[in-house]
Amino acid sequence: MTTTKPPIWFWIISVLALIWNGLGIMAYLGRAFITDEMIAALPEEQQAEFLIEYPAWYTAAFALAVFCGALGCLALLLRKKWALFLLVISAVCAIIQHIYLFMNVEIPSMVMPIMIIVFCLFLVWFAKHSASKGWLS
Predict the structure, then answer these.
(1) What's the rounded Cα separation, in Å, for the pair 54 and 80?
(2) pTM to 2 decimal places
């Protein structure tokens, strides 16, 4: 199977997507490894967010969403078709995670959760489109 050379915007989107998912990994690690002392040092309105007990499956969905997203974006940069598989897993996990939030946690703003879901779905489309154009092998 031959692949064609992707345009420059493919590389720009892929790099930006990898940075986006890297920020997601930082958010996950920050939540996973925050200590009680660190929580106490936060402003009171932010402390409440960290004191919510999330189920283990929620944490697993969060981890899968960000790590599969980052690996999927790395696979895009490597021009591998399996990027689509990883980005689908990421999107499904992010959607499950945010549906739980919408139903069980009072969120001050819906902008970021909706933006995350839209971006995940965009990346799935982007990977599928890239594969159909022959940019991925």
Answers:
(1) 34
(2) 0.88
